[in-house]
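Q: How would the structure tokens look for this protein?
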Amino acid sequence: MRRPEAAATIDLSRRETFRDWAPAILRYRDLDPNGHVNHGVINGFFEEGRIRFRRDDLIRCGRDTVAGIVVVRLDARYRAPLYFPGNVEIGTIILHVGGAGFVFGQGLFQGETCIATAEVETVFVHPETARAVRIPKDVRAVLLEGMAGG
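A: Here is the predicted structure in token form.
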């Protein structure tokens, strides 16, 4: 499920694209041998942003919003090195909502510098069968509210 043409024009490298934010603190142990924050840690920051969106926004649906959604594709672009010490902010929006899945758009920022961006395709799954199911109407409504340009 690639994002549609209209969403393809959304620039994930701009802070003003995002309305949902999660803070994170860099740790010394996050560094790679080159002295940069490791790409795996950056992907972990993206996960923190998605979990915060699900926990804070989807909680209005009155259900466990951390379970039942699985990542099926993560496409990250690393744009600038990230150095310790410091803080970062993870911006998260919804780029597309389909029948059983949706796409997060994310940006990782240190100050005004965009460190990395990601598009993350997810699928809503049944808790017992782990098979894709249609996104429930109440969840869909919250996702549509969180869409870029919405």
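The chain has three helices and five strands.

Residues 54 and 65 are 6 Å apart (CA to CA).

Upvote if useful.
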